[in-house]
UniProtKB/TrEMBL annotation:
Keywords: Branched-chain amino acid catabolism, NAD, Oxidoreductase. GO terms for biological process: L-valine catabolic process. It comes from the Eukaryota. It comes from Psylliodes chrysocephalus. This is 3-hydroxyisobutyrate dehydrogenase. One of its GO terms (molecular function) is 3-hydroxyisobutyrate dehydrogenase activity.
Length: 296
């Protein structure tokens, strides 16, 4: 492998992405503020700071919760900029504000580092299987350089436009995801309350017009599909605060261009209410439990 790769943020997505890099022969240096998370990937070299991981790296990848955290990880005392060699490529795979992506690009440029935004879709199952979709914003040449590494973690890589365009595509996708998950939960809850078998109802929806990723890949009802967070007590997966964050980012983006987001705004408030009702550490499909009215 030509590249020395550093990976910062070894959470639900990052850990699985690093496993695929390692499986395909790519050595990786990792850092996470939670030491247990950082050491969760056998074979990766665990570092004590983002700066240490970035030292000598041609490519630094971040998979962090929010834009503010990515910025902090870049600029901190022992942050990425303290270690990353000049002209190296910084790939942010987190879902963040398109405007923040532009700011990170500017800061990177001032430090002679190249930057692209490359948020992903596919969830923890896509990260596990190495089938993520990457949505890239930035220069063509930088995307070309990123491709061999990104393709070890995902099958589809789309060039969306300039810096921030990957984030715009991602926010549009998650706007649909946040809404369809709630719709699927409502329909499943209704059918089950009226006596239908959840697996039968799922089979029908999945060959009918109500089908979506939320019904056929990540069904929210426990026991309908094996190996998805809803069948594991809604542990792991895509947390409620993260989908709430994405819908908030979509709303802010919509405000900036005067576009109405009616269902998006409602979905955003539903996830925020879930957080206040004690579901903040659960996978976002837990909206099904919320609607069902079952006590946690
Ligand atoms: P996560 O919370 O599971 O993981 C984030 C990791 O970053 C944690 O291990 C945390 O300890 C670490 N971290 C936080 N601050 C840090 C810092 N300053 N330095 C180093 N490490 C730090 O989140 P996730 O589900 O893996 O999501 C990561 C990003 O990917 C988010 O932007 C999310 O919106 C996006 N995303 C998530 C999914 C999903 O299904 N989970 C799918 C697509 C995109």
């Amino acid at each position: 492998n030509a590249s020395n790769v550093a990976f910062i943020g070894i959470g639900q997505m990052g850990a699985r992405m690093v496993k695929n890099l390692l499986k395909k022969g790519q050595e990786v240096k990792v850092f996470d503020t939670i030491p247990l998370a950082a050491s969760s990937v056998p074979g990766a070299k665990v570092c004590k700071s983002a700066g240490e991981a970035a030292k000598d790296a041609n490519i630094v990848i971040t998979m962090l919760p929010t834009g503010d955290i990515v910025k902090e990880t870049l600029l901190a005392d022992k942050g990425i900029l303290k270690g990353i060699p000049k002209k190296s490529l910084f790939i942010d795979c987190s879902t963040i504000e398109p405007k923040m992506a532009q700011e990170l690009s500017r800061i990177s440029k001032e430090n002679d580092v190249r930057y692209i935004d490359a948020p992903v879709s596919g969830g923890v199952t896509g990260a596990e299987d190495g089938t993520l979709t990457f949505m890239v914003g930035g220069a063509d040449s930088d995307m070309k350089e990123a491709e061999p590494v990104l393709s070890k973690m995902g099958g589809k890589i789309f060039k969306c436009g300039d810096i921030g365009a990957g984030q715009i595509a991602k926010l549009c996708n998650n706007l649909i995801l946040g809404i369809t998950m709630i719709g699927t939960c409502e329909a499943m809850n209704l059918g089950i309350k009226l006596g239908l078998d959840p697996k039968l109802l799922t089979n029908i929806i999945n060959v009918s017009t109500g089908r979506s990723w939320s019904s056929d890949t990540y069904n929210p009802v426990p026991g309908v599909m094996p190996n998805v967070p809803p069948s594991k007590g809604y542990e792991g997966g895509f947390s409620v605060p993260l989908i709430a964050k994405d819908l908030g980012l979509a709303e802010a983006a919509a405000l900036s261009c005067g576009t109405p987001l009616m269902l998006g705004a409602l979905a955003h408030q539903i996830y925020r209410a879930l957080i206040l009702n004690g579901y903040g550490d659960k996978d976002f499909a837990v909206v099904y439990e919320f609607l069902k009215g079952q006590k946690k």
